[in-house]
## 1
Amino acid sequence: DGGITQSPKYLFRKEGQNVTLSCEQNLNHDAMYWYRQDPGQGLRLIYYSQIVNDFQKGDIAEGYSVSREKKESFPLTVTSAQKNPTAFYLCASSIGVLPGELFFGEGSRLTVL
Amino acid sequence: DQQVKQNSPSLSVQEGRISILNCDYTNSMFDYFLWYKKYPAEGPTFLISISSIKDKNEDGRFTVFLNKSAKHLSLHIVPSQPGDSAVYFCAASAQVSNLGNEKLTFGTGTRLTIIP
């Protein structure tokens, strides 16, 4: 089955620790994205990548880092510099040329204790 | 600055009736608009889209209307069914390079509840 796999689904972290969220896709999509969802705030773009070895900051990139070493993979690291990391994180991919039709993973819920 | 706004956080509609979800935007560069549907603890799924060269797009029970002069779009669902109960996100994008529309800006969502 083609799709986007995010792991872990639930993650708990102590303050001051970095944590990496995994995102893998087998849709052969060029572009990949990380969004964050908070109650009442909709989805906000953290980072996106249109091609391998290239990525751009989104609207709320501070405290996060990404890499895009393979087309299929776009991991997100939530660093200790992120002040409010507790949120629902969504990874998405798209063909990259057509406007906007993103395919989303099922999300990862991060809770900082 | 919220460029895409969904001013109704929630909406309840009787089964079989029409559901109308509204969305306003401020950025005149937006030229493509989408609606996504999201169930709890799942990722959003694409529902329907519309380009700024059109004012209406229909797909089965779902119709999206775009009023460019008012910077307003709406999603109509008719007839509404219990399975339509979900959070609906409006999203917009602007073509910024020859690579196409690079990113989406989402609204805050409207929780639709269909009452049996």
Note: The first strand of chain B starts at residue 4 and ends at 5.
## 2
Amino acid sequence: AQKVTQAQTEISVVEKEDVTLDCVYETRDTTYYLFWYKQPPSGELVFLIRRNSFDEQNEISGRYSWNFQKSTSSFNFTITASQVVDSAVYFCALSEGASGTYKYIFGTGTRLKVLA
Amino acid sequence: EPEVTQTPSHQVTQMGQEVILRCVPISNHLYFYWYRQILGQKVEFLVSFYNNEISEKSEIFDDQFSVERPDGSNFTLKIRSTKLEDSAMYFCASSAGPYNEQFFGPGTRLTVL
């Protein structure tokens, strides 16, 4: 069965610190997609990144970077030099086609608090 | 930049009443979804819709729920007889293809009294 685990419920850091949000997934499918979304206090879900199961290259976008490791079924997200505006709940999600549609299975989210 | 819109932003209703939540997906998208998020909890899949029919629904999506794409632009979620436990944020999402990222609307907060 598909499952996404975000073991960190809440993380607090001081501005400018680096922080890594963990995501571990379970799937039997060989073709799947992984995503990160940000949910700021205003409540909307903002897309951050999409990765397919065949592409294990790490990705960097500004202060954000993602480390995808199939060997450990992990897709971790690092924010470098965190800022107060990074404060939000971050969700990792898995999408696979075994059920017929590529619906998302979300993790429980990690609340990140960046203190000034 | 195209975006998914949802109305209303907040709906308050009495238990047993019918509600319709409305969404306008991104215009060239073909795959549509509804998710819900009970306060403080994770986002849960409700239903997916493609080619004018439901392609998958979760256990949550029972006979009280229905979806419709009445006019080629709107995508609606109807709850026939609301229960207290239906109180949640409901998100509509759309994507260009089954493997593409889904873009979410701002959500409708449903409060059932």
Note: Chain A touches chain B through 25 residues (CB under 8 Å).
